[in-house]
Specification:
This protein is an all-beta fold and 209 residues long. The chain has strands spanning 2-10, 14-43, 47-62, 66-96, 100-115, 121-148, 151-154, 157-171, 176-192, 195-200, 204-207. The radius of gyration is 25 Å and the shape is rod-shaped.
Length: 209
């Protein structure tokens, strides 16, 4: 499963412009789960609970090329949230002639770009950029596990959880030329709070390896 959110603001070229506030917010929240559970599952082959998922949030603000520009606030937020799981849960007997595996693969990406000067700003008089803020946060929870109160029996038994989590926040410098250029504040925050676990717990495991 893929969840994607995008927010995009573009301010075009105008001779004279005053912008009080531009804010782009992108939030993606995905829940994806693959689960094999039961009290009596017996198969001759393999049992595989496999989950592949992606949560992506992208926000972008591109500003202008103008003769006189006053930009009050430019704020870009991107939040990539999600819960991704691959689970085998036994309340009795789960038995396979082959392997039993829980496999979880995920991607969590939060990206925000605030660009006060897309392609450069040529300023005849004054450019004042009061506040430029970029905030990106990737906060996902991922699990791959074998658990329960019963028995899990197979040739090979395992739980694998792999993924990529990235938070990227940027405020671009751009190109400015003119009589007066003033940038009061540039702030970027990239926060990564991903939780990842792989476990075998509770259940009675019988396996060759």
């Amino acid at each position: 499963r893929t969840a994607m959110a995008q927010a995009y603001i573009f301010s075009a070229s105008i001779g004279m412009i005053v912008i009080k506030a531009n804010a782009a917010v992108a939030r993606a929240n995905a829940i994806s789960r693959a689960k094999a559970a039961g009290a009596n599952i017996i198969v001759g082959g393999d049992i595989l609970a496999e989950n592949t998922a992606k949560s992506e949030a992208v926000s972008k603000i591109d500003n202008l090329s103008a003769g006189l520009a006053s930009v009050g606030v430019m704020v870009g937020y991107a939040y990539a949230q999600g819960t991704f799981e691959a689970l085998v849960d036994s309340t009795g007997t789960i038995q396979a002639g082959g392997d039993i595996n829980a496999k979880n693969t995920y991607t969590s990406l939060a990206s925000t770009v605030t660009n006060p000067a897309l392609g450069g700003v040529s300023v005849s008089y004054t450019l004042t950029a009061m506040v430029n803020v970029g905030y990106a946060e990737a906060l996902t929870t991922s699990n791959a596990g074998l658990s329960g109160t019963g028995t899990i029996q197979g040739a090979n038994v395992g739980a694998v959880n792999t993924g990529k989590a990235k938070a990227d926040a940027r405020v671009m410098g751009g190109f400015f030329s003119g009589s007066t250029v003033q940038v009061v504040s540039n702030t970027v925050v990239a926060k990564l709070t991903a939780v990842q676990s792989a476990y075998i717990t509770g259940a009675h495991i019988i396996a060759q390896a």
